[in-house]
């Protein structure tokens, strides 16, 4: 595997989600296998859904074994340093947010490489960014983060929109990647800090 | 996209399921994004499962962006007219039933076009008809309609059976479509009206 | 379909999981359709996930209708003889374990046939072995067996490891199949009998 910026980002996102999965599993007091499985599913969930729906099979982590080894090592490190990682307050939230920002980018990029319509690329970005965390939460019996009162997936959709517009304008790819992942991460942090929420519509 | 009867039905089914999803999400008091996501997943869930399992990728809604725009517009209308739609008692049930009837047809038809065995076509019809509603119910934390005491999916299976028999007899396609969707819808309405249920088998 | 040892094992695994599904559904007092659907999903779930992720579509049970008929007949027999089957204490556990052992083998084998990396073959074996039972448990509202305190999926991973090592050493295929399925089944039985469990890691 070449070390392009795309691949480096994909690896960083995988590491971030693997850590968030391992933390969630230890928090739920699952056994060793449970920790590995949640870590793995969180890290590869979004990309697997994306690859399956566009027909990019065997899915990426089956073709590139680096992912499976990487997740294994990261999970072991997360177990060993579990108390240190957790010392940083809200570290699960932090790693989840980093993974979200990065995987949104890789999802949109894969859509563009497959010549899909811009709106589908944005949807792919949101799915790739959120699906792993949603499975993690479902398996850990949490209400998925995606449905809590934070503008979670909306950050992905907005980041994806900026991505396709910049791509259309011919902006340099590295700049697009860095700008849009920072946008997604910033929106999420600001939203949580200032308790911003989307409107509700009740049936009266 | 040509406006064949197949495509018109597929669009009508998509609209019906999108409305049922939006109603369910507003009923559960999800925020704006939650409404869109449930609406979207309900409308494309069945077709996405069908396309993925037979290998028709990228899945239909990724190739044909009309679906994603259509669902967006329908969801906005459902939000604006939420109190009017809901004034019709049991409208969620009604739209769900229409979607069920129509998507059963499109599922069976896609199976036939892919030269699959008649019994597999019937199974594809049932999966396409029921899967979107099942995800909607799971995400909204309801027991999926498919497992409640109404002969829900059984209506799809029966409609699918009539479809493949009529297709084998060489009946005109338009007549098959209309007959079988009406059969599925009628069975479901009658079953609910007269509280018909399937037998149970207990382990003594 | 030829009657190779692979196909015979695949059929035996399908029968075992279909029975375990039917028993679980009757235990949960689902209606006739619910019994068939749980039986079907349990029996084809693991193989369907495996086929979808590697791109072997339409998935196996759609190409080979023998599976759908077989599951139908097995489910009817399970309903008719429900009290007899259940008379054998822990029969759900028994059939689940047999299915687990056999499907681990078929998963690894399919990975090898698709020239995937040994570690991916082991992962495919574990997914094929455990996914059907996990869906069964989720649909029946149980905590999935895979997350209970038995070394469940770990048995699959160990069996898969032995499989790829023996395959690498050029051992005769029939011997590999029988050895590894017996290993998986034995580990699970021993683990449950002696209450062996994997270590836990708490965040202090």
UniProtKB/TrEMBL annotation, chains A, B, C:
Q: Does the keyword rRNA-binding apply?
A: no
How does the record say this protein sits in the membrane? Multi-pass membrane protein
Q: Where in the cell is it found?
A: Cell membrane
In the UniProt record, the signal sequence range is none
TM segment ranges: 6-25, 32-49, 61-81, 93-112, 118-139, 151-169, 175-196
Organism superkingdom: Bacteria
Q: Which residues form the Glycine transporter domain?
A: 8-82, 94-167
Pfam families (alphabetical): Gly_transporter (PF03458)
Question: What's in the keyword line of the UniProt record?
Answer: Cell membrane, Membrane, Transmembrane, Transmembrane helix
Similarity comment: family membership: Belongs to the UPF0126 family.
Name used for this protein in its record: Glycine transporter domain-containing protein
């Amino acid at each position: 595997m070449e070390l392009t910026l795309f691949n480096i980002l994909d690896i960083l996102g995988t590491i971030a989600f693997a850590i968030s999965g391992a933390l969630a599993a230890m928090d739920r007091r699952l056994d060793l296998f449970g920790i590995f499985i949640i870590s793995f599913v969180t890290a590869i969930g979004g990309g697997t859904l994306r690859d399956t729906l566009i027909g990019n099979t065997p899915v990426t982590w089956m073709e590139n074994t680096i992912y499976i080894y990487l997740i294994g090592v990261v999970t072991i490190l997360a177990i060993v340093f579990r108390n240190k990682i957790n010392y940083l307050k809200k570290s699960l939230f932090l790693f989840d947010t980093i993974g979200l920002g990065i995987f949104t980018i890789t999802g949109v990029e894969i859509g563009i490489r497959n010549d899909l319509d811009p709106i589908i690329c944005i949807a792919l970005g949101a799915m790739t960014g959120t699906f792993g965390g949603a499975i993690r939460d479902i398996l850990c019996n949490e209400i998925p983060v995606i449905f809590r009162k934070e503008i979670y997936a909306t950050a992905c959709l907005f980041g994806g929109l900026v991505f396709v517009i910049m791509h259309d304008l011919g902006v340099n790819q590295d700049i697009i990647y860095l700008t849009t992942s920072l946008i997604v991460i910033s929106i999420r942090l600001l939203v949580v800090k200032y308790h911003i929420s989307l409107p509700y519509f009740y049936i009266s």
